[in-house]
Amino acid sequence: MGRVRTKTVKKASRVLIEKYYPVLTLDFHTNKRICDDVAIITSKRMRNKIAGFTTHLMKRIQKGPVPGISFKLQEEERERKDNYVPDQSALDISAIEIDPETESMLKALNFEKLPGISVTAPVRAGRGGRDFRRRERRPRPQRPGAPAASAAPAIEA
């Protein structure tokens, strides 16, 4: 079973990452030495726990943003993604196909003069050819040596 990490270990690791993110690595032994240099940790066991959780968080940060940790690089990355404007829009509104029912709704709202709208015939969603509900059921073939369905023994009460 896994071990429980105390609040002290988690908080210390988060503070360590926020302050020393560029120095930390994905290697436990390197992070252990960094913890020794930058922090005063009372015991070797506590230092190892903090270094281990720090390494774990660093690996999670590689995959994506981690809640509860904010450092400059992560914030800059988020800002860059938020401010990105694509060259071509994913929504192509040069030609929009609508059905007659939608056209009547637009007319009711006085939007019949919108550019790029073309009315198409409604598409009926049909079944794929075979209708299993209306099929006649065939009797199942009997296995050799098995009693017939009509010859089943009757249970008397």
SSE blueprint and pairings:
Blueprint: H1 7-20, H2 28-38, H3 44-63, H4 72-82, E1 96-98, H5 100-108, E2 117-119
Parallel strand pairs: 1-2
Helix pairs in contact: 1-3, 2-3
Protein name: 40S ribosomal protein S17.e.B
InterPro entries: Ribosomal_eS17, Ribosomal_eS17_CS, Ribosomal_eS17_sf
Region (Disordered): 120-157
Fill in the keyword field for this structure.
157 residues, Diphtheria Toxin Repressor, domain 2, two-stranded parallel sheet, 5 helices, 2 strands, flat, Ribosomal_eS17_CS, ribonucleoprotein, structural constituent of ribosome, 40S ribosomal protein S17.e.B, ribosomal protein
Could you describe the 3D structure shown?
This is 40S ribosomal protein S17.e.B. It holds the Pfam family Ribosomal_S17e. With 157 residues, this protein is mainly alpha-helical. Among the domains are: 7-67, Ribosomal protein S17 (Diphtheria Toxin Repressor, domain 2), CATH 1.10.60.20; 93-120, no CATH class. It has helices spanning 7-20, 28-38, 44-63, 72-82, 100-108, and strands spanning 96-98, 117-119. It has a two-stranded parallel ribbon.
